[in-house]
Specification:
The complex is a heterodimer of chains A (87) and B (295). Chain A is mainly alpha-helical. Chain A has one domain. Chain A has five helices and no strands. The radius of gyration of chain A is 17 Å and the shape is elongated. The two termini of chain A are 18 Å apart. Chain B is an all-alpha fold and 295 residues long. Chain B has two domains: 62 residues, no CATH class; 215 residues, MetI-like (MetI-like fold, Orthogonal Bundle). Helix content of chain B is 73%, strand content 0%. The chains are: A mainly alpha (87), B mainly alpha (295). Chains A and B meet through helix 2, helix 4 and helix 5 of A and helix 7 of B.
């Protein structure tokens, strides 16, 4: 009863959480210096930071940003499809 | 609760007051309340007590639950060694500036989109809302390049407070929040003001703004917390020690300072936000619900 009715909100929360977690930056930077063992703690955001501001590769960093945008847009598209089905 | 609240929930009142139902109810309540208190206050407790431990005690495994020999001196050390007064002042300065700029420009934008309705207003609004779809992290690089060499004017904004203020003002979420609130102000009030010969500027100042006090409070709180907790952006655009914000400052000092002093500095940095939250608790809650989608 309750769970099917809140399905949309649950999907929205899941999507927002995915979008937020994909942008994780401070935690890997502080806890694992961004890398960890064999880059196991590197987040996309940290990779962008590393490319753009340490390896002097702003173009690469911007490209990574675009890739991230596309991936996140994919998650949003899933959410939009879920919403559309309901109507 | 023992008394009948009048609302019927899934579990009836009589089920709750009987033997087994009652036991389950109270155990669940206690477990949930205690669990959440622990989850939310635990880190704060750990931070405040961690700052009171000696350098040796904070490094030991397993960690001690209470500081054996509390050392308030750590807080004084943190204040002096990390030059926290300067860092806090910087952050406060950026926050106040962000609030003022947002109140002036976002209100103006929302007012014109909601009440003055210029040509293509809806297109502009749609474009603004479109920017909400782009994650902040994606924009870091283009935004940084823009700050390095501002188009048309060709000024370098590094270490200038405008590097924080300008991106903060272009905040589609707050403009949308304000617009939604202005939309709810009846058109009749606007018409009455017009009949009395008020200009649109005068209407904004004497009618709309006094009515919008709650939402202006919400926007200000959002602006202050956003500046206070931002890390990556101020780290990039405020490279010199004199212009650092408090979060970046603590991070830079973290390498060469004893852990307990760093934690003490974090406690001091967190105090203003905690105070702001306690004072404006109700506004923050209402702000969270005004902007959100109601299921």
């Amino acid at each position: 009863m309750t769970i099917p009715q809140t399905r949309l909100i649950l999907a929205l929360l899941a999507m927002l959480q995915i979008v937020a977690t994909m942008q994780l930056f401070i935690e890997p930077l502080i806890l694992a210096n961004g890398a960890g063992a064999e880059d196991s703690a590197t987040s996309v955001a940290y990779l962008i930071y590393q490319h753009g501001f340490f390896q002097n590769d702003l173009n690469g960093a911007a490209a990574l940003g675009v890739i991230m945008l596309v991936v996140l847009a994919g998650f949003s598209a899933v959410y939009v499809r879920l919403t559309a089905k309901q109507d | 609760m023992a008394q009948d609240s009048g609302t019927r929930t899934l579990i009836s009142q009589s089920q709750l007051s009987r033997g087994r139902g009652r036991v389950i109810y109270w155990t669940l309540l206690v477990v949930v309340v205690a669990g959440f208190t622990l989850v939310f206050l635990g880190p704060l407790y750990w931070m405040v007590t961690g700052a009171l431990k000696s350098g040796q005690e904070i490094a030991q495994t397993p960690p001690s639950l209470f500081p054996k020999d509390p050392q308030p001196q750590n807080y004084i050390d943190a204040w002096n060694n990390l030059a926290l007064a300067k860092l806090l002042f910087n952050t406060f300065y950026y926050a106040i500036g962000a609030v003022l700029f947002q109140l002036v420009f976002d209100t103006a934008a929302a007012y014109s989109l909601s009440k003055l309705r210029p040509m293509f207003g809806n297109v502009i609004l749609a474009l603004m809302l479109g920017t909400l779809m782009i994650p902040a992290m994606v924009l870091i690089v283009p935004q940084y390049v823009t700050v390095l060499d501002l188009p048309i004017l060709h000024i370098n904004l590094l270490d200038s407070p405008f590097a924080i203020w300008l991106p903060m003002v272009a905040n589609a979420f707050n403009i949308f929040l304000l617009k939604r609130f202005f939309d709810s102000i009846p058109e009749e009030l606007m018409a009455a003001a017009l009949m009395d010969g008020a200009t649109s500027m005068r209407t904004l100042w004497s009618i709309i703004l006094p009515l919008s006090r709650p939402i202006l409070g919400v926007v200000s709180i959002f602006a202050v917390t956003a500046v206070w907790k931002d890390f990556l952006w101020p780290k990039l655009v405020m490279p010199s020690p004199e212009t650092r914000t408090v979060s970046v400052g603590i991070y830079t000092f973290a390498g060469g300072t004893p852990m307990n002093v760093v934690i003490a500095a974090s406690v001091i940095a967190a105090i203003p936000t905690v105070i702001i939250f306690l004072i404006f608790q109700r506004n923050i809650m209402s702000g969270l619900t005004t902007g959100s989608l109601k299921g």
